[in-house]
# Entry
Amino acid sequence: MLRSIAICLLFLTAALPALAEEIVLKDGTKIVGHMTGITSDKIEVETSYGKVQLNRGDIVTISFADSASAKAPDAAPAKVSLPKIDEVLTGTQYVNRTAKFSLTLPADWLIDPNLRNSPTTLAGLSSKDKMRFAMVIQEDYPGSMDSYRELTMLGVRRTLSNFEELAHSEATIDGKPALLVYYRGTLQKSNNLPVEFLSAFLQSGNTFTKISVWCIEPLFHDMQPAFEKIVASYRTSGHITADSTKP
# Structure
């Protein structure tokens, strides 16, 4: 049973084919593509004919294609080449020397390389029983914290059905302003398995860091204090102690 649940949860971070959004404008025009940027007044969409910018006031609806209606790819996607990560977990202290950050984890956690599926994923971590998970993603984005969060949540909607944002609040992590977002949804490809998440967003110039922790929804309430400690423990190189970098 534990193995089957763990496999289901891994669907969430696997490299799935991206599903397109259909955007309907006030004049009846329909545009199909993937949103790649959001500002206060415009949305940038990558279509098969190139990038277009739409005025947000001209948009009537945005709908997301489901997996049943999505066209199957003609060929398997090319395997993504992932950069080598210099990382170590000693006891409860995880140190990522490549990206120069650390996290404090519960005692039974380990490094889970199966969770790294893109070059922007810097760390994948899980409990020993493969029931609880954490991931650190870092990427450059030229917009604001609000637009990055909104774009990220739109991406989550492609993966989860019955998506619901539960709460969000401001916090301070690593001495920087951060945004905490709680949300949940179901994995349609895994018998509608309910999953609940906490993601913390941090910004440093044009670089955004997202620390996400999650588990199946029935376990989330009990795990919430530990999850909040994990995201709050994020420290960059200036705040990592010398002892924590020892193998």
Q: What stands out?
A: The two ends are 35 Å apart (CA to CA). DSSP finds three helices and 16 strands in the chain.
